[in-house]
C-alpha cells in the first residue's frame, strides 16, 4: 500500500507512453494509391515492417520496400547507432578516470576543500544548451582553441574533429557528476580499514586495489551506469553544437536526434525507432549489471566486513 502511489505514477509516466509507442509502431499513417488495387489507402496495421525498415535501411517507395536514398533517416540508422555508442563509450571512460582522480583530491583534508567542491559543480550546473553554445564559440574556426593551438581545425564541420568536439564538451560538463558520486562512495569507507592495512604493511597500490576499489565498486557502478544511460540518450549537445552534421553528412547524429528528425516526417516510423532505442538502452543496462555482478542497491556494511576480513 505504501508503494502503490509510486507504482501508479510510474505506470502513468513510463509504462503507458511505452505501450502507446509500441502500439503506434505497428501501424502506418502513410496514405496513397495502392499499386496493386489502384485504390486510395489510409494506411493500417503493418506489423513489424516499420522495425524492418530501420534495421534493413529500407523505405517504402511505390508500395514496395527499397533501399533508402542517401541522406534519408533510415539510411543513417546504423551510422547513428555507431555514433551513439562511440560517444557513450569514450565519454564515460574519460569521465570515470578523471572523476576518480578528482574525487581523490576532494576527499583529502585541506584548507578550501568546501570551495573546491562547490566550484567543481559549476560545469554540471550549467544548462546543456548554454554549455553547447559556450563550446561552439570555443570551437569556432577563429575561436579560442584554434588561436591557442595555432591551428585551423574545423571543429564543428570536419567528421572526426566534430565528434571529438562533442566528446570534449560532454566530458567537461558531466565529469563533476561522476566525481561527486565517486566521492560519496569514498567517504563511506571507514578510515580504520586503511589504518589496519598500513599496520599490516600494505603499499598504496595494494591498498587501492584490495580495499578502495572493492568498497568503491557499488558507487562506481551506479555512477557509470547512470552516465552510460544518459550518454546513450544524448541529444541536445550534438544537436546545438553541430546540428547532427559533421563530415558533410550525419557524422554526429545520435539515435535521439534521428528520432526527433523522424517525428517531423512520420509518427509511426518514429515510434518504431524510439522503441528500438529503448530496447538498446535497456539491453545495455541489463548486460552492464549482469556482467559486473554488482549489487547496486548495496549492502555496504557486509561488503566492508568482507574486505576487512580479506585484508
Task: Explain how this protein is built.
The chain is mostly helical. It has 2 domains: 71 residues, no CATH class; 234 residues, MetI-like fold. Helices cover 67% and strands 5% of the residues. The strands form 3 sheets. Strands 1-4 form a two-stranded antiparallel sheet. It has a two-stranded antiparallel sheet with strand order 2-3. It is globular and about 85 Å long. The relative contact order is 0.13.
Concise account of the structure shown:
The chain has 311 residues and is mainly alpha-helical. Helix content is 67%, strand content 5%. The chain folds into 2 domains: 4-74, no CATH class; 77-310, Orthogonal Bundle (MetI-like fold), CATH 1.10.3720.
Termini separation: 44 Å
Q: Briefly, what CATH class of the largest domain?
A: Mainly Alpha
Oligomer: single chain
Number of domains: 2
Measured on Cα atoms, how large is the radius of gyration? 24 Å
- Shape from CA axes? globular
Count of helical regions? 13
Number of strands: 6
Please estimate the helix content: 55-70%
CATH architecture of the largest domain: Orthogonal Bundle
> Poorly predicted ranges (pLDDT <50, ≥5 residues)?
none
Mean pLDDT over all positions: 84
* Succession of helices and strands: HEEEEHEEHHHHHHHHHHH
